[in-house]
Amino acid sequence: MERDRIRRYEQAAELLPPRLRRSALELPDAYKAQAEELRLRVGLPLTVRTSEGERSAAPADRDALVTAEDLERMIAGVTEYSRYASAEALRQGFLSVRGGFRLGVCGTAVMRDGAVSSLKDFSALALRIVCERIGAGADVAPQLFDAAGHIQSTLILSPPGAGKTTLLRDLIRCLSLGSAEHRALRVAVIDERSELAVSYRGRPQTELGNHTDVLDGCPKALGIPMTLRAMTPQVIAVDEIATAADIEAICAAANCGVALLATIHASSVSELRRKPLWRDLLAAEVFSRAVVIGCGSGIRTYTVEEVPCFDGSARD
Amino acid sequence: MLRWLGAGLILAAALLTRRTLLETDRAAQRTRRALAASFETMESEVRALLTPLPALLRQRYGEEADAFFAAVTRELHRADLPGAWRVAAAELPLPPEEREAVAQMGARLTGDEAAVCGALSLGAVQLRRIADAAEAQRAQRERLTSTLCLGAGALLALMLL
Description:
Radius of gyration of chain B: 21 Å
Largest interface: A-B, 13 and 14 residues
Structural class of chain A: alpha/beta
Number of helices of chain B: 7
Largest sheet of chain A: 7 strands, mixed
Helix content of chain A: 25-40%
Largest sheet of chain B: none
Number of helices of chain A: 10
Distance between the termini of chain B: 10 Å
CATH architecture of the largest domain in chain A: 3-Layer(aba) Sandwich
CATH topology of the largest domain in chain A: Rossmann fold
Helix content of chain B: over 70%
Shape of chain B: elongated
CATH class of the largest domain in chain A: Alpha Beta
Number of strands of chain A: 13
Distance between the termini of chain A: 42 Å
Radius of gyration of chain A: 21 Å
Number of strands of chain B: 0
Oligomer: heterodimer
């Protein structure tokens, strides 16, 4: 596993401009294995982010500082000199990169008709080393079915950075592949921010199973009814429900008999009840299971809970 | 006998030179037309479909343009796009000032849609204009080339005889 993470880090470092690449590759292997992101900020040294924080990956001399030209060159490289082809993603502040990486972009927003139409004068980049944990959801997936073998709509809950997206990705793969006990399901993924499939030029770069259809870069509220009509999925998976429109689309899909897999920033079901938006979601009683991710002593644990009815009573 | 043979060889060399010069001229003309047409196609693809440049470079436009784009793609492993474009432009069968005009296009292929379309459109217009001017003067240039080559050959042959 560590070897694999080092390899992924080195692949990510290859995307850096040459002079920054050298210092990134000189880091010790132990640090490479923990790296989650490479960060470039104009006028500052290249840093590597791990779960413990950021560390400089370059000497503090003047020549090692990131320049605006470095950022321009890196964006030109990852977009293959075709930034116009990634304009919609760039407008949202990220780019999917060949190899299954994701590049967060910061700069000056170009506003048109009250909305961000593009970014210019780039000031910072964050190269996310998307981490697939094949098998992370293998023990969880069977617990998402009821006694009759029907998949149950499930929420994945944890604070930010605990691995919701990673678990959701592997659950999609497990459900799409099926198992000896449960047949494969058609899964539609509405990948609004390209974090699940990390699609590059329309092709998913992560392992999502054989029966998965990915709608990339589409807002969840629009994508859910689209895939419902077009792909007749048995499961719809979405990352980070965040708006009332998302909840409305989810409720509509649930009424069509589709199961949903979704992630939310919350540490427990009881925390959901305290926030107005999530109270609406719970009131709709779409989700009957919740997977709560724990991170005690650096080891992730997955606890599958039954979501009680909104009035507090247990489900049948 | 040897003199007649020498005169024959001189005339043959003059004919060969004439043919080579005319063929070079025609190859340059074909390259101009092919590149201009490919730049126009690329520009319309970028505008209408936002097709990325690597995909555009892989498309087929005709022998002369394909050779240029293949050279750009090959050089991209060693240099950035402006650099690769410049190296490939240096190999084009065109006069130096036209090669330089094509090379300069590369610097404007920065990824911005307006800049890319502008560069491709300008490149196409420039090459087409040069090709049209060359076409208008073609008969005169071919006559001049023939006269010079054959005249010089005949003169040398006569002097030898």
